[in-house]
């Protein structure tokens, strides 16, 4: 994120590699406070030149006692005049730097834990219940509290919040930034407003205005193409770019052969009826399916799909004329799970828009939503007048069904998966559950099992049903679908989809699992 020209109060987040770092920024922006994320190894001058009202030290995958653990090159506690909040690794870094001790925990805390507030007078926990659920993701804990700090909250297994030095230093072991810490937003707002006294004078409208100005300045009189999928992300990205340069943008909607049943035709019709974008449909299904033949490794699939997309876009750009830029609806979860851009975040998987792109391509990228989360994108989409037909859709991966088929992508597997996908969506809509579920889809497993249909023995595929609830896609919990709905889905899948004789339901949360299986 670039620095705003207006004199907004600023919160600085120093990134130590947590998968949740951008979520902290997202929560702060939700509270209408401007913030910037800087890598942990940013120079002292770069941090304090922003004149921050507060500094947040993020979590991270390292242990502070490791020889190569990421650490600051200066004493932030002595150098900073503003309040500091350490989250997870950030808390441990504060403790270690002040002479306390951090060690591996006998009971590693992952998922929900019950937090008991030990200091009700703490400004961080003001006006909150004496006990609350919080979300944990750590294997180390503080065993020795340094002089100048005191414990303000605990769980059954560990102390989980500290503060001190005249109300200027705060730390929490849990993650207030994730949706699964119910009072996390209020905790962060207490830090922003009670501790830092920051002004709530920033809004999503600022994102639209800033990006429109940047795109106009970048593109000038040139032309761009947009890789359109029909989903929320690319539709909003295309609309935002259209707001900036209008007819200079041509949107390319590619039939990869990996889309939902009828998706290519119906989405093209929807764009024509409800949007003013210039959209061109391209059938490249043969290119994608041919390139994927015999491939089973998920990373290789993503890279192949990314490469073929670029080949198609460059071919279409040549037909349009001189085009220098490609617009993509990349979101921050795509980035943070693919490559490290802000700090030493661990790679989870390559996204086809990010880690799957070829190193050399003729088009330069414009990614106006790269710093945003799905719900923020929906908010901006409504601000831009994007119809709910697009904004209300469940997320669908750019690689399509290729990453929902565990194993080789074949026409037979795609036919099976499309039929299963239609049944799941139909039953959720009939039960009026589609809008309350973040995402629901089938996954074809590379496993066959014995079954009985009528008087005959079968040996056919296993299908997993994945349904999750989420706010932002960075954390998710499995959806508690009613048993009668699951029963109808299972019955229809086995009886209507030839090749399936067993259905399983995925009850994994994120983390430790991801939403998609590949």
Commentary on this structure:
By secondary structure, the chain is an alpha/beta fold. 32% of the residues lie in helices and 25% in strands. The chain is built from 15 helices and 18 strands. The protein has a nine-stranded mixed beta sheet, with helices on both faces. Strands 12-11-10-13-14 form a five-stranded parallel beta sheet, sandwiched between helices. Strands 15, 16, 17 and 18 form a four-stranded mixed beta sheet that branches. α3 links the parallel β3 (54-57) and β4 (84-87). It is globular. The two termini are 29 Å apart. Mean pLDDT is 88; it is low at 1-5 and 339-349.
Brief overview:
With 518 residues, the chain is an alpha/beta fold. The protein has 15 helices and 18 strands.
Tally of extended strands? 18
Strand order of the largest sheet: 2-1-3-4-9-8-7-5-6
Oligomer: single chain
Helicity level: 25-40%
What structural category characterises the helix and strand content? alpha/beta
The overall pLDDT average reads: 88
Give the N-to-C terminal Cα separation. 29 Å
Shape: globular
What is Rg?
A: 24 Å
Largest sheet: 9 strands, mixed
How much of the residues is beta strand, in percent? 25-35%
Keywords:
disordered N terminus; nine-stranded mixed beta sheet; 15 helices; alpha/beta
Question: What's the structural blueprint in terms of helices and strands?
Answer:
Elements: E1 10-15, H1 21-30, E2 34-39, H2 44-48, E3 54-57, H3 76-79, E4 84-87, H4 89-97, E5 101-117, E6 131-144, E7 149-154, E8 159-164, E9 169-172, H5 184-195, H6 204-219, E10 223-228, H7 232-245, E11 249-255, H8 263-274, E12 279-283, H9 285-292, H10 298-320, E13 323-327, H11 332-336, E14 364-366, H12 374-383, H13 388-391, H14 411-430, E15 439-453, E16 456-469, E17 477-478, H15 483-496, E18 500-505
Parallel strand pairs: 1-2, 1-3, 3-4, 4-9, 10-11, 10-13, 11-12, 13-14, 16-18
Antiparallel strand pairs: 5-6, 5-7, 7-8, 8-9, 15-16, 16-17
Helix pairs in contact: 6-7, 6-12, 7-12, 9-10, 14-15
């Amino acid at each position: 994120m670039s620095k705003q020209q207006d004199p907004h109060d600023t919160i600085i987040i120093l990134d130590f590699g947590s998968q949740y770092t951008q979520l902290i920024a997202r929560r702060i922006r939700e509270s209408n406070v401007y913030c910037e994320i800087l890598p942990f190894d940013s120079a002292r001058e770069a941090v304090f030149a922003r004149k921050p009202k507060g500094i947040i030290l993020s979590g991270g995958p390292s242990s502070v006692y490791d020889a190569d653990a990421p650490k600051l090159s200066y004493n932030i506690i002595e150098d900073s005049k503003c309040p500091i909040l350490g989250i997870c690794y950030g808390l441990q870094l504060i403790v270690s730097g002040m002479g306390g001790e951090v060690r591996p925990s006998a009971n590693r805390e992952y998922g929900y834990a019950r937090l008991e507030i030990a200091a009700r007078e703490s400004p961080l926990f003001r006006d909150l219940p004496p006990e609350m659920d919080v979300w944990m993701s750590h294997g180390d804990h503080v065993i020795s509290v340094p002089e100048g700090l005191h414990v303000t909250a605990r769980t059954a297994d560990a102390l989980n919040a500290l503060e001190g030095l005249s109300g200027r230093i705060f730390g929490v072991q849990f993650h207030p930034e994730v949706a699964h810490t119910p009072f996390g937003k209020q905790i962060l707002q207490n830090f922003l407003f009670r501790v830092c006294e920051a002004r709530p004078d920033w809004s999503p409208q600022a994102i639209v205005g800033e990006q429109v100005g940047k795109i106009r300045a970048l593109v000038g009189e040139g032309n761009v193409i947009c890789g359109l999928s029909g989903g929320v992300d690319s539709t909003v990205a295309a609309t935002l770019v259209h707001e900036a340069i209008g007819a200079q943008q041509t949107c390319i909607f590619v039939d990869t052969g990996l889309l939902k049943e009828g998706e290519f035709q119906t989405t093209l019709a929807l764009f024509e009826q409800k949007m003013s974008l210039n959209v061109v449909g391209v059938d490249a299904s043969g290119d994608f399916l041919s390139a994927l033949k015999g491939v089973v490794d998920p990373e290789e699939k993503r890279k192949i799909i990314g490469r073929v997309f670029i080949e198609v876009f460059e071919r279409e750009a040549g037909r349009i004329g001189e085009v220098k830029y490609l617009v993509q609806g990349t979101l921050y979860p795509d980035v943070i799970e693919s490559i490290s851009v802000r700090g030493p975040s661990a790679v989870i998987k390559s996204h086809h828009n990010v880690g799957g792109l070829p190193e050399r391509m003729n088009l330069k990228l414009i990614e106006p939503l790269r710093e945003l989360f799905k719900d923020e994108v929906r908010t901006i989409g409504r601000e831009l007048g994007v119809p709910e037909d697009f904004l209300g859709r469940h997320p669908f991966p750019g690689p399509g069904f290729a990453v929902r088929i565990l194993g080789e992508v074949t026409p037979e597997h795609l036919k099976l998966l499309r039929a299963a996908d239609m049944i799941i969506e139909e039953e959720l809509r009939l039960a009026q559950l589609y809008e309350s579920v973040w995402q629901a889809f089938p996954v074809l497993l590379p496993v066959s099992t014995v079954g009985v249909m009528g008087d005959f023995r079968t040996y056919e595929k296993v299908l997993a049903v994945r349904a999750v609830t989420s706010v932002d896609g960075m954390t998710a919990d499995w959806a508690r679908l009613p048993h009668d709905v699951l029963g109808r889905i299972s019955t229809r899948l086995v009886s209507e989809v030839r090749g399936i004789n067993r259905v399983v339901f995925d009850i994994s949360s994120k983390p430790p699992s991801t939403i998609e299986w590949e």
